[in-house]
């Protein structure tokens, strides 16, 4: 829960800086927490956990070599991507890029998060596949958020709509439902 609240601090702070209005920042944060990303910032963080599993499945489908490699090394996807999801990239990508991502997030919904994650992973798959152990792979995942393209936010934003290819909202909804149900049956 603490990690979740810390992530909200980054988001709320950046919204306040950008909007320069406590009311506007509050209402944007309310929409984000209650409508766009329900169950992200809760005690169980069920939404985040499910979406990390969805991302893992999307990587398995769209970038299978990276999925096999990460699985073989044994690095949990939650270790790699929790900060990406909780902070909505605010702590790991340049601010201008983050704000453009958030524009798309408010306009198109949460599937933008997956587009960003898949783009970062796919663009850096060669580096990721060269890692031979847990610590070098974890470090490489930190480095991919410093990819030269993320600084060029216009080009990066264009790439998130090309690199991952087709990513229908219905596919994400089905994966969320299936993975959440599977997790409930395990426990």
From TrEMBL:
<comment type="function">
    <text>May act as a GTPase-activating protein for Rab family protein(s).</text>
</comment>
<dbReference type="GO" id="GO:0031267">
    <property type="term" value="F:small GTPase binding"/>
</dbReference>
<dbReference type="InterPro" id="IPR035969">
    <property type="entry name" value="Rab-GAP_TBC_sf"/>
</dbReference>
<feature type="domain" description="Rab-GAP TBC">
    <location>
        <begin position="1"/>
        <end position="109"/>
    </location>
</feature>
<dbReference type="GO" id="GO:0005096">
    <property type="term" value="F:GTPase activator activity"/>
</dbReference>
<protein>
    <recommendedName>
        <fullName>Rab-GAP TBC domain-containing protein</fullName>
    </recommendedName>
</protein>
<dbReference type="InterPro" id="IPR000195">
    <property type="entry name" value="Rab-GAP-TBC_dom"/>
</dbReference>
<dbReference type="Pfam" id="PF00566">
    <property type="entry name" value="RabGAP-TBC"/>
</dbReference>
<dbReference type="InterPro" id="IPR050302">
    <property type="entry name" value="Rab_GAP_TBC_domain"/>
</dbReference>
<keyword id="KW-0343">GTPase activation</keyword>
């Amino acid at each position: 829960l603490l990690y979740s609240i810390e992530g909200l601090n980054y988001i709320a702070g950046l919204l306040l800086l950008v909007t320069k209005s406590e009311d506007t920042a509050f209402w944007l944060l309310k929409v984000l927490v209650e409508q766009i990303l329900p169950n992200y910032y809760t005690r169980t963080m069920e939404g985040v956990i499910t979406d990390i599993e969805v991302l893992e499945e999307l990587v398995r489908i769209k970038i299978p070599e990276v999925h096999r490699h990460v699985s073989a090394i044994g690095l949990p996807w939650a270790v790699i991507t929790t900060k990406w999801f909780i902070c909505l990239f605010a702590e790991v990508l340049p601010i201008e890029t983050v704000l453009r991502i958030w524009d798309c997030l408010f306009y198109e919904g949460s599937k933008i998060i997956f587009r960003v994650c898949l783009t970062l992973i796919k663009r850096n798959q060669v580096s990721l596949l060269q890692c031979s152990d847990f610590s070098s792979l974890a470090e490489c995942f930190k480095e991919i958020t410093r990819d030269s393209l993320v600084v060029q936010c216009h080009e990066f934003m264009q790439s998130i709509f090309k690199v991952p290819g087709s990513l229908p909202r219905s596919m994400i909804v089905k994966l969320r439902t299936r993975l959440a149900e599977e997790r409930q049956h395990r426990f």
